[in-house]
Amino acid sequence: MRKAAWVTMTVLALLIAVYGLAALVVPGFGPPFMAERRTQVAWAVYAHLSGSLWALATGPWQLSDRLRQRSLGWHRWLGRSYVLGVLVGGVGGLGLAPHAETGLVAGVGFGTLGVLWLAFTALAFVRIRSGDLAAHRRWMVRSYALTLAAVTLRIYLPLGALAGVGFEAAYPAIAWLCWVPNLVVAELWFVHRERSAPAVARS
């Protein structure tokens, strides 16, 4: 079950990373408002897309116990590149937040996401530098839960349309729904691991 969840997460993340790469390099590809944003805040578009797609693509491997155990050096270098990706993507996201479609509520939602994404990733980096492996892993899980907002956003958008909710009404809610439930799931996963740990230790 755990492996299936990791594989599903990785496949979805890689698909959205490819989508982000196409939006970055293929003229006219992506949502209609992308062309307008490239005119308004081109630096933010390129920073957000490039950094975010790299974080999406590298994050799952950082959460792989097998990779970490087999090649700690590779895990560390990949982790550093993930942090750089979040830094670039997060700053770009903060630059885009004031220009969010549908206005203030969506802008605050995406802006809050950007701040927390940067903060959680920084805490993960600080914790591993201080040698606190358990705290580092927790903050990395929280960081990647926010990275996956790029995936859940693109799940909620068509679901909203299928439910008959107009874009203007759905998008402000999705700007929050794309990441808040992700964090809730991460915290529930921590609780599950803590509860199951004694049973594993006794077996």
Structure notes:
With 203 residues, the protein is mostly helical. It has a single domain (2-202), classed as Up-down Bundle (Four Helix Bundle (Hemerythrin (Met), subunit A)), CATH 1.20.120. Helix content is 85%, strand content 0%. It contains ten helices and no strands. Helix 3 runs antiparallel to helix 5. The longest helix is centred in the middle third of the chain and has 26 residues, at 104-129.
List the helices and strands and how they pair.
Elements: H1 2-25, H2 33-40, H3 42-62, H4 65-70, H5 72-96, H6 104-129, H7 133-147, H8 149-162, H9 167-177, H10 180-202
Helix pairs in contact: 1-3, 2-3, 3-5, 5-6, 6-7, 6-9, 7-10, 8-9
Can you give keywords for this protein?
203 residues; mainly alpha; Four Helix Bundle (Hemerythrin (Met), subunit A); 10 helices; globular
* Named CATH topology: Four Helix Bundle (Hemerythrin (Met), subunit A)
Low-pLDDT residue intervals, each spanning 5 or more residues: none
User: Architecture in CATH?
Assistant: Up-down Bundle
Cα Rg: 18 Å
Helix content: over 70%
